[in-house]
Design brief:
Layout (H helix, E strand, L loop, with lengths): L6 E3 L8 H17 L10 E4 L1 H10 L3 H9 L6 H16 L5 H18 L4 E8 L16 E5 L1 H13 L4 H10 L8 E7 L7 E6 L10 E8 L3 H5 L5 E6 L10 E5 L5 E5 L12 E5 L2 H4 L6 H17 L10 E7 L6 E8 L10 E7 L5 E8 L3 E8 L14 E4 L7 H4 L4 E4 L7 H9 L3 E3 L4 H4 L5 E5 L5 E6 L4 E7 L9 E6 L2 H7 L7 E5 L1 H8 L3 H5 L6 H10 L6 H20 L4 E4 L5 H5 L21 H4 L5 H17 L5 E5 L5 H13 L11 E5 L2 H5 L1 H6 L3 E4 L1 H9 L16 H17 L2 E4 L3 H4 L1 H10 L3 E4 L4 H21 L1
Parallel strand pairs: 16-17, 17-18, 18-19, 23-24, 23-30, 24-25, 25-26, 26-27, 27-28, 28-29, 29-30
Antiparallel strand pairs: 1-2, 2-5, 3-4, 3-5, 6-7, 6-12, 7-8, 8-9, 10-11, 12-13, 14-22, 15-19, 15-21, 16-20, 20-21
Amino acid sequence: MSAYQYIRSLADLTIDDVPLVGGKNASLGEMYRGLSSQGIKVPNGFATTARAYRDYLDHNNLTEKITEALATLDIRDVDQLAEVGAQIRSWIVYGDLQPKLKEEITMAYQAMEQEYGDHTDVAVRSSATAEDLPDASFAGQQETYLNVCGIERLLRTSKRVFASLYTDRAISYRVDKGFEHMSVALSIGVQKMVRSDRATSGVIFTLDTESGFRDVVMITAAYGLGENVVQGAVNPDEYLVYKNTLDGGHKPIVRRNLGEKAIKMIYAKGAVTGTGGAATTNVHVRRAERERFALNDDEILQLAQYAIVIEKHYSDRAGKPRPMDIEWAKDGDSGELFIVQARPETVHSVKSGAIQEVFSLEQRGKVLAQGKSVGGRIGTGRARIILEASYMNELQPGEVLVTDMTDPDWEPVMKIASAIITNRGGRVCHAAIIARELGIPAVVGSGSATHDIPDETDVTVSCAEGDVGYVYNGILPFTKEEVDFGDLKRPNTHIMLIVGDPSQAFYFAQLPNDGVGLARVEFIISNSIGIHPAALLNFDSLDDSLKRKIQNRIAGYDDPRSFYIDKLAEGVGAIAAAFYPKPVIVRMSDFKSNEYAQLLGGLMYEPKEENPMIGFRGASRYYSESFTEPFGLECLAMKKVREEMGLTNLEVMIPFVRTVNEAKQVIKVMAQHGLKRGENGLKVNLMCEIPANALFADQFLEISDGFSIGSNDLTQLTLGVDRDSGLLTQFDERDPAVHELMGMAIRACRKAGKYIGICGQAPSDFPEITRWLVEQGIESIALNPDSVLKMTRIVLDVEAEREQSKAAS
């Protein structure tokens, strides 16, 4: 095809051909030509050149007319924008293809029919010569047409693709990005359709779309053609795969979120033969399909491998992999996975990693709606409910757009919103992508926000609280801080973090740190699992009502037992992956009996205690007859993280160990479930939070790898203060008796050459305790993320004073 005037085969194109065929088609050619040898499947096809588009305008005497029409356009006037855009598109659609272009498209399509059969079904895509730049994606600005069959339909569709260079959103976007309209040309991409209407499709990002963390691959998947995922018409499944242990034969899938996947786009009846009817249509997905994951583990891992290869292939001049936004599809006939598009990611790839904007909500209010959190920010304003794009001009600057879903037609007004809320969509839907690019928060996939949020109500949209985004009633106060830690020196004392929510781990990992001194599993058990482990182990004997409730929660997983192990492993694995290869010390579950009772089915298995704070908790549970099996599930989850995911930086910690004999019993039970101290480098630490731990530190340390001081419980048990009581607030960790016990623990660990850290609240709250701990020679201090910078500076000051003192002496 290289001899043609207006046509280029994908096999003849490389990434350097953006001026010739636009960013999208140049990228497709680059992949088809450069990645097929590495096992990545890209559907074949061809592209028209930029010259073909310019000659089309000249052939129909449109160049000057379009220039004049745009000369006086004010894109802020939505009505004028719509009028001018429609006029230009009409001129182009009703033009005539120049004979040479018509002939070459016909010949190129006939060549595809020889390869794939008569009336080959193709996707007809738009590719602008200014798109897919690192800071401007142009994604969705022009049109894509799916399942186009037959030469006559292809020729008509080609003119519609040309016309889509002047959609309202494309005109607006070019002005915003500073591109001259007539300097941008359009290439038509014609590519063999992948029969994902009979299977699945979705989007891949080679980083975490919210935090920008680059060591994971994020995959979304839904049934049918991929347009629904891109536009946000469905809430897809989401998967996260950790890159750095994937090549070692491991299976580091650290997140699986089951999406609703309510509809799927398929070929319309009669469309394949070109006998009429719409090319595609949406149908409802059966409940059984909705309640299972659209991809199996092997497919998830294969797509992650594809993504890593693609990212490396598009490395920058320094050889650093470039974050990519990729579309994939599975062929329902062959079962093969294809890559159908790839472009540079345009939000996080241009940010400085040393500077972070930190948003914090100062108070909370009534929750009106919630969904998936996008953007990590907080926005406020008056809610404006708009259900159709034709009414989008009702949105006023600074208002919060509330709608069912958005598509590129909404973009001219989205830029004036303070936040966006949608009923439908996942983290890679249109609304989410545009919100990130605009730097505003978005809550997507809320389900019923247009019903639950009263129109014209003042709201606060918070996407700064982790995986879930909340819409609160009223304008609530919040803070925004820009932190630059690029030049912050690292102290000799290790500064570690306290982490409980896996969805925030990727944010926290970008703070200056030496790992995680305390990873709590209670948040994962409460929020991701929500079911008492004993109820899952005894599922068959439960009453029908409880069974139904549990079945709704475990949808997508093989069985109740696997659900608990896999969900816990995924949560812990996400934290371990975020900080790999730095140590991540995971404290085994330390729920009290009243807290376990609040889980689904928990009342059946938990005793009623007068003071659960000093009752059946921590180590005493693990070897007891009533809890040793549930504890075994925890052990298997940790084993899965270390062995199957390859995250051997995970260490375990046993809480609330009352006696040396109790510690021995727990370590024995752990070994029976596959967690053997020293095997594959596994370290087993103990919490030092009972006075007996400090008093008999030498004996405890003989059977463990170190201590982590739990200052809250140590204070409670040293001074006889119930820390749940609000009447005794005058007692805290600064008491001399508490210091004496902490000092004993530090000296004992130093003497034994064992790890000694602190993971209680005290160093995060009291600078004087942080100073004292450093002076005592503690090895590490685990802090709440919001106190890391402040306390790091204090630690550096103490270490500097010590050095000065040494120098002076």
